TrEMBL record, chain A:
Record family assignment: Belongs to the glycosyl hydrolase 20 family.
EC number(s) from the headed UniProt entry: 3.2.1.52
GO cellular component: a single term: membrane
Name of the protein described by the UniProt record: Beta-hexosaminidase
Residues covered by the Glycoside hydrolase family 20 catalytic domain: 190-489
Active site: 337
Residue ranges annotated for the Beta-hexosaminidase eukaryotic type N-terminal domain, each copy included: 40-165
Record keywords: Glycoprotein, Glycosidase, Hydrolase, Signal
InterPro entries xref list: Beta_hexosaminidase_sua/sub (IPR025705), GH (IPR017853), Glyco_hydro_20_cat (IPR015883), Hex-like_dom2 (IPR029018), HEX_eukaryotic_N (IPR029019)
Domain of life of the source: Eukaryota
UniProtKB/TrEMBL annotation, chain B:
Protein name, per record: Beta-hexosaminidase
EC number per UniProt: 3.2.1.52
Organism in which the protein naturally occurs: Hibiscus trionum
Catalytic activity: Hydrolysis of terminal non-reducing N-acetyl-D-hexosamine residues in N-acetyl-beta-D-hexosaminides
GO cellular component, one term: membrane
Domain (Glycoside hydrolase family 20 catalytic) ranges: 176-480
Length: 500, 529
């Protein structure tokens, strides 16, 4: 039964309603949930379901087993998800419980088994889990709800899936799990499932970054690529070179070292790595607000002055300082969109190029490789945007991870040369391209054009990029979602289905 | 000719000088006092104070609501920053150890007209090391806490919370007792978490009424225990509020000093009622307004209002009454017959319906708010307990108060937030008392409300559609008339500051630039966009 009528306070609505009407007629799926679908996102790699309905106790308790069961990360994760699952008031009264009606609920305990007690969060950490949900039937040995994982991070993924299966039923006012018994085995397809945030074009308050990290965990994304600095502003504190954050927009639009550490530990509690980026030698004009020597000249300010030792001393200082903040093994050195005009047009740099018998292009290579060495000396694996690979592939350090963005076909070339690769083809996975709809995001495939399994293994994964030129705290979340979720499904589950 | 020309120039120059002088004086306050909305009175000095790491609350008034509000305030000023200052480096006389709150009334019941005034002194003139806040009610104290939170900054270089420009004395109270924001959960369902975030953000701008337009043509999301099939009209099984959810919204709002005005809009805008009870429709093909000829209609309305009275304890209930197109009454044979038998034309039937609904609401102890069409059509027949809610245009408030009824101003050309192209400046300059000079009549304008109709907004974009434009109206409704900027340009910097504060507190408030609601055009500082 379709209900439709003209409504007033807004003139647009008639048209909107007509559109909506036609959609409904087309798909007939506006109101009734399609029971044949599995409402878990991203879709787990293996699952079976049945046709029972389980009720979940609002005082759901946690019981843990295994060496990793007593982790704080697990305990806090359980409490977070409990809040999400039980946000509505329950209809079954405590009175019923007091009267001794035991087990009014099918699920009153969630058992989580974590085999390892290591909380180290590194690339490739085991995120697999198995989730089992069934009526207890009085058999005490098998818990009605069990998550088993090798690490706490796998257990967190299992909790996320569990939370998505719990639905508040408004008729009985209880939380229910439909289509039980469930048996789910899940393991992500890629180890690197990233989202880029850009805090240089617009400063993002810490609270907003935390909201985004929280939402990433819902889609099982696991890398926050923090593009901290760019030409517009330098918001991060660097204790060794305290004038750098003079390049912040204002004194309020800054992150202290402690703020950055807080973000990293907030992310870790949710199984999310933070990959920091310091983009050199282009995209670095804001550095010179505090140290004008870094500019080729006061009228020609980018890229960083390749001819000065001070430039590399300072990079080394930044990396030493922030190494203490970012424990993740990958570190992004940028290297994209380097226009060397200021090098060739500034006399002292031109002289230096002559003295060293370098072209501007060779100087770009020299800069990138030197920066790579610094990063490697701090025990980091360098990630660079694809221009570095496109310009001097054989010179890059073999540990380099090539970050694709310009177009398709780059990861196949990079992995053929033995490099690791991250896929971010801008035509599909740049979230600042506001006109790319979610189904095009979904259709992009990180392994496209790579058939050899050992080469496929070199593709670490992919990343959707939320560049900040026209996105700030006011609109960043709806620019990220739901399109980032489309990519998240791709990262997670190998599907040949095309979206409808 | 020459003389008159000279006179013209002299007057023009004098006006220019005078105008500039005024602009300069208020501009200087606007650039120094970064409080939104601007308090009735604020004086300040030039000393710096620092909050100690264990900055706490002391009060003569044992109140959980106050304690919770204090904790929220502290979290809002810390903004997740890590405080690790070296306190031994500060002179002891520059440290603030606690905020002392004196509340004179033990009554914590929030109601229309609850005293919201407060006085804030930082530091306390009597107790060194303390800030001092006094208020008649706990709700005045909540506003004082908001103001205090806006005096505090996290110093990124010293890693400490600091109060600049002390000593501060702020004496403050609102200009209007009713400062509302409408949300519409029928056109799009808004999840509980979103409603709570909106309530939080309202408290930052000292708005005090959440007008909850719960039900409309499109969906009926609320549980009505007396008529349980009504929420069959919800969009989907999960886009619903249980009665317990609604009670939770009310108590969440009250803890923040905000009343909830529930609206059940009759007899138009009620099509969704009939999904569960089709006999409320005139007929299957003509589904609005509610069937005036059917006693069951009024039974259901009585049940709804009876259930409401257990949840919504605000003095007022909103009965709508707008945009009633009576065509279905005259084209449905059964109703046409009924009209004839009762010697009513359809506009009389509309009046009959509204007045009967008013009587039902009165019987449940409510005073009534109705949209202005009811006043425009039969103002003299309305209950004297009616508050007329303006929306169609300007000049209505004037006529309403002349007739002795009370009024809420929401003229759509200025205060409808779903008009995306109305810029914040228009929200700022909209004056509820335009052309009302008699002070008795002025008092009948109880306030105003900005309306966030939900046709094209949902949980994804409601915050940036509300903010910062609602804040512009919030200052109009809070700040004494003489302290309001005559030209909104004077407050741009201070409003941008408040917008950035909202962002820092996790509220997705939009940039000021652009005409109406807009995304940022290009990179830049929050404070300049």
């Amino acid at each position: 039964m379709l209900l439709f009528s003209l409504k007033p306070h807004c003139k647009l609505t008639f048209l909107v309603s007509l559109l909506w009407l036609s959609l409904l007629v087309d798909s007939n799926s506006g109101f009734e949930l399609d029971e044949s679908l599995t409402y878990i996102w991203p879709l787990p790699s293996e699952f079976t379901s049945g046709n029972q309905t389980l009720t979940v106790d609002p005082t759901l308790s946690l019981s843990v087993l295994g060496k990793g069961g007593y982790s704080k990360i697990l305990k806090e994760g359980f409490e977070r998800y409990k809040k999400i699952i039980f946000k509505h008031a329950s209809g079954i009264s405590l009175f019923q419980k007091w009267r001794g009606i035991r087990s009014v609920y099918d699920v009153s305990e969630l058992r989580i088994i974590v085999n390892s007690d290591s909380e180290e969060l590194q690339l490739g950490v085991d995120e697999s889990y198995a989730l089992f949900l069934a009526k207890n039937d009085g058999k005490p040995i098998v818990g009605a709800a069990t998550i088993e994982a090798n690490t706490v991070y796998g257990a967190l993924r299992g909790l996320e899936t569990f939370s998505q299966m719990c639905a508040f039923d408004y008729e009985t006012k209880s939380v229910q799990i439909y289509k039980a018994p469930w048996y789910i085995k899940d393991n992500p397809r890629f180890a690197f499932r990233g989202l880029l945030l850009d805090t240089s074009r617009h400063y993002l308050p810490i609270d907003v970054i935390k909201q985004i990290i929280e939402s990433m965990s819902y889609a099982k994304l696991n890398v926050l690529h923090w593009h901290i600095i760019d030409e517009e502003s330098f918001p991060l504190e660097v204790p060794s070179y305290p004038k750098l954050w003079n390049g912040a927009y204002t004194k309020w639009e800054r992150y202290t070292v402690e703020d950055a550490s807080e973000i990293v530990s907030f992310a870790k509690m949710r199984g999310i790595h933070v990959m920091a980026e310091v983009d050199v030698p282009g995209h670095a004009e804001s550095w010179g607000a505090g140290y004008p020597d870094l500019w080729p000249s006061s009228s020609c300010r980018e890229p960083l002055d390749v001819s000065k030792n001070f430039t590399f001393e300072l990079i080394s200082g930044i990396l030493s300082d922030i190494r203490k903040i970012f424990p993740f093994e990958l570190f992004h050195l940028g290297g994209d969109e380097v226009h060397t005009d200021c090098w060739t047009s500034t006399p002292h740099i031109k002289q230096w190029l002559n003295d060293h018998k370098m072209t501007a292009k060779e100087a770009y290579q020299y800069f990138v490789l030197k920066a790579q060495e610094i990063a490697i000396s701090k025990d980091w694996t360098p990630v660079n945007w694809e221009e570095t690979f496109n310009s001097f592939p054989s010179k890059l350090n073999p540990r380099t991870v090539v970050h694709n963005w310009l177009g398709p076909g780059v990861c196949p070339k990079a992995v053929a040369k033995g490099f690791k690769c991250i896929f971010s083809n801008q035509g599909a996975w740049y979230l600042d391209h506001l006109d790319v709809p979610w189904n095009e995001v979904y259709n992009a495939e990180p392994l496209e054009g790579i058939n050899n399994v050992s080469e496929q293994n070199l593709v670490l994964g992919g990343e959707v990029c939320m560049w900040g030129e026209t996105a700030d705290a006011s609109n960043v979340q709806q620019t990220i979602w739901p399109r980032a979720a489309a990519a998240a499904d791709k990262f997670h589950f190998f599907s040949t289905n095309t979206p409808s | 000719m020459v003389v008159s020309e000279w006179l013209f120039y002299a007057v023009a120059v004098a006006a220019l000088v005078l105008g500039n002088a005024l602009a300069v004086s208020s501009a200087s306050e606007n650039s120094k006092v970064k409080i939104w909305p601007m308090p009735a009175s604020a004086s300040y000095g030039n000393a710096q104070l620092y909050l100690t790491n264990d900055f706490g609350l002391s009060s003569n008034h044992e109140s959980q609501a106050l304690k919770d509000a204090f904790d929220r305030m502290l979290a809002a000023i810390k903004l997740d920053h890590v405080i690790d200052a070296n306190f031994s480096a500060f002179s002891p006389s520059s440290l603030l150890r606690a905020l002392h709150i004196v509340v004179s009334s033990p009554n914590e019941q929030l109601q229309y007209g609850t005293d919201e005034s407060y006085k804030l002194m930082v530091p306390s003139p009597e107790k060194p090391g303390y800030a001092h806040l006094e208020a008649k009610t706990v709700y005045g104290a909540l506003h004082g806490l908001q103001t205090f939170s806006q005096l505090c900054y996290f110093s990124i270089t010293r890693r400490v919370l600091e109060v600049r420009m002390s000593p501060w004395t702020v004496i403050d109270q609102p200009r209007f007792p009713y400062r509302g924001l409408l949300i519409d959960t029928s056109r799009h369902y808004l999840p509980m978490t979103v409603i709570k975030k909106v309530i939080d953000s309202m408290s930052y701008a000292k708005l005090n009424v959440l007008h909850w337009h719960i039900v409309d043509t499109q969906s009926f999301p609320l549980e009505i225990p007396s008529y349980p099939k009504l929420w069959n009209g919800a969009y989907s099984p999960s886009e619903r509020y249980s009665a317990a959810d609604a009670a939770e919204v009310v108590s969440y709002a009250q803890e923040r000093g905000i009343n909830v005005l529930a609206e059940i809009d009759v007899p138009g805008h009620a099509l969704s009622w009939g999904v569960g009870y089709p006999s409320l429709w005139p007929s299957k093909d003509c589904q609005q307004p509610l069937d005036v000829s059917n006693e069951f209609t009024f039974k259901v309305l009585d049940g709804i209002l009876s259930d409401f009275s257990k949840i919504f304890n605000f003095k007022f209930v909103h009965l709508g009454g707008d945009e009633v197109d009576t065509t279905c009454w005259t084209t449905t044979p059964r109703i046409r017959k009924w009209l004839k038998r009762h010697r009513m034309n359809e506009s009389q039937a509309y009046q009959y319906f509204v007045l009967r609904a008013q009587n039902i609401a009165l019987s449940h102890g409510y005073e009534i708010v109705n949209w202005e069409e009811t006043f425009n059509n039969f103002g003299s027949k309305l209950s004297r307990k009616t508050v007329v809610h303006n929306w169609l245009g300007s000049g209505v408030a004037q006529r309403v108060v002349e007739s002795g009824l009370r009024c809420i101003v929401s003229n759509q050309d200025k205060w409808y937030l779903d008009h995306l192209d109305t810029p914040w400046q228009e929200f700022y300059i909209n004056e509820p008392l335009t052309n009302i000079s008699n002070s008795k009549q002025q008092e009948l304008v109880i306030g105003g409300e900005v309306c966030m109709w939900g046709e094209t907004i949902d949980g994804s974009d409601i915050e940036q559609t509300i903010w910062p434009r609602a804040a512009a109206a919030a200052e109009r409704l809070w700040t004494p008339y003489d302290k309001l900027a005559k030209n909104p340009r004077e407050v741009t910097g201070r409003l941008a500051h408040f917008r950035c504060l909202l962002n820092q507190r996790g509220v997705a408030a939009a940039p000021l630039a652009g005409s109406g609601r807009a995304a940022p055009f290009n990179p830049g500082s929050c404070y300049e966009q």
